[in-house]
Amino acid sequence: MKHALYYKSKKFAINTLIHIFLISVSVTCLYPLLWMIASSLKTQDMIFKDISLIPHQFRLENYVLAWQEGGFGRNFFNSIIYTVAVVFGIVIISSMAAYAFSRLKFVGSKFLFIMFMAAMMIPIPGSFVALYVLLNKLHLRNTPIGYILCMINVGLSTSIFLLKTFFDKMPKELEDAARIDGCSKIGIWWHVALPLAKPVLAVVIVFNALAVWNEYILALIIFDNRQFMPLQVALQTFQGEFVTNYPLLMAGLTITALPIIIVYLLMQKYIVKGVTQGAIVG
Amino acid sequence: MWRRGIGIFLFLIFAISGCSSGKVDSKPTISVWHWMTDRDAAFQELARKYEALAGVKVNFELYAPSDAYSQKIRAAAQGINLPDVFGILGEKRDFASFIKAGHILDITPYMEADNGNWKNKFFIKALAVNEFTSGNSYGIKAGFYGVPIDIMTIQMVYNKKLFSRLGLNPNWPPKTFQEFLDIGVKIKAAGMQGLVSGWGEVWMIDCLANNYAFNIMGKDKVLATIRGDIPYTDPDWIRVLSIFKQMQDSGVLAQGLVTMINKSAEQLFANEKAVFAFNGSWCVNVYKGMNPNLEYGAMLPPEASNQYPIAIWGGAGSSFMVNVRSKNKEDAVKFLIWLTDQDQQVYLAQATNNLPANKNSLTKIPEILAQFARGMDYATHPNVWGVSEFSLVIEAFDRGIQSIIIGEKSPEQVASDVQKIKEREMAKKRAR
Asked: Which runs of E-coded beta strand occur in B169-323?
């Protein structure tokens, strides 16, 4: 009896410790988010005077002001277009490339794959000036298509790596069966490989959507016209060299965070599966 | 199915690229790139006024934050895509590299025209940042290459309400260091907080220490020390270091000052929890946002000696340059002449709470800004000294002051430590 009580108490103590740890991690993660939302509903001076998470007065007009003063309308639309186009481009190109690297035997395939992987090691800011000069020569600077092509290029390496790892572990028998049914190589990629790769594709989509949605430095360098800028650039309007308009910045951040939270919630069931993918295929 | 998907993708690409066709505008248009978020609305308003007045359209394009703006300017210079007017962020050698690469117009002839009519409107020290004197170490032809649009100084501010509460005259800030220390005793007795500043970011300690070094030993001796002709163990330098010990002992420094970041210091002062602050003129805008009802005044750091005048750090805040390749460069210069004229400078100061570069604007701007701007007569900056101290020496000096404040070391110990590092660095330099 004493023995059972000992194990029960030990289990309870361990569980309590684990829960305390997890709750503190959750609070650490959630607090900045809650502070952002609370600050978005306060005035500038209240942010510095009142540190509580529940404002005394809710200034919902901060959201309207942020939308109007930041010129969010056009930038929001741009960000959606860029995110959809870039993620779509990356999914199509990287899945085709990864399938080819995994299944097709051609001269220089290993070398090409290593080159793609090497591109992952280059820090993005290091290539800004080179990209600018290249786009300038191609007359694609200050055009949305130039920006989309650059962003597709930025996201390809990691996506190819993730998808190739998945395709390498995919049973060949599934492809043989599809071939017997009369599928071409591109048909196998579309009808067999892609449906099986859904969890990995979800990871590719979420990671790249996040990267494009949050990107602003390359956009700032490539674009001269404000009408092409993505949403994140509009957010900088509220952040001065010495003075930051915190209520509008926080309202703007809350607006910009919403779409990406929705994408994450829609895809979350695939994400854990995708990150740990490789064990079960087919 | 996948064909339809690729079709949608291509449609999106072409739909977007269709948006990129530019409109042809027959009006002359000046393009200005800048990073000053807080001034953008005022710039847009001035652009509207200028178009109505001169028929020339001015497009102010904001690219913030400043580090991304810097990258954009560098990339645009490489691609020969710089706009008609732009600003350069960075040190003077960056400025010089743009001039050497042939991107910036020498505006000396415009500045000197009509007996220097344009040049004479500016604070002399605001022009210094944009001027290359003859025989400069960068090999640039002597002249002016930029136009200051505002200035900044770093001074002390004091809270008038707390002054009254301490029984002091709110319109009579301390002039001498002894008066300052006496107020420290009163602050301590009243259980208030004294001076706050961003001394956790050590450059602000360096700034105040330099102010007192100029006051105690004069500019020539400070520069002689930097050149290595006078040691940091000299009695005058020990006196400079002792200033911080005296401040700490009197109670004029706030608690936790050595680890304080400037944002926290600004918050404390704005919320009336500190009597003094040591801050740049940008603080006017910051305090206005944090506490619009704050009653305060600006003052020079109280003099510790009457042998030499006190010096404060200051100079041009932001400047604009004209693209030498621009087909609109004449129009661009005309616009900058108009932008730095008295009325426009007053408007900019009132709308943005920055100090005007035009010295004739002081009577028409808020008193607190004028107080900061009048400090320009005492302004200096390491960038215009022509010699620079080793970064390790500066770090040891500033960290040493922090250790004096917390009572870890004496001024003599710090002076000796700094001198050792100075000698080591000079020996290294000689060996190179």
From this structure: 195-196, 276-280, 296-299, 312-322
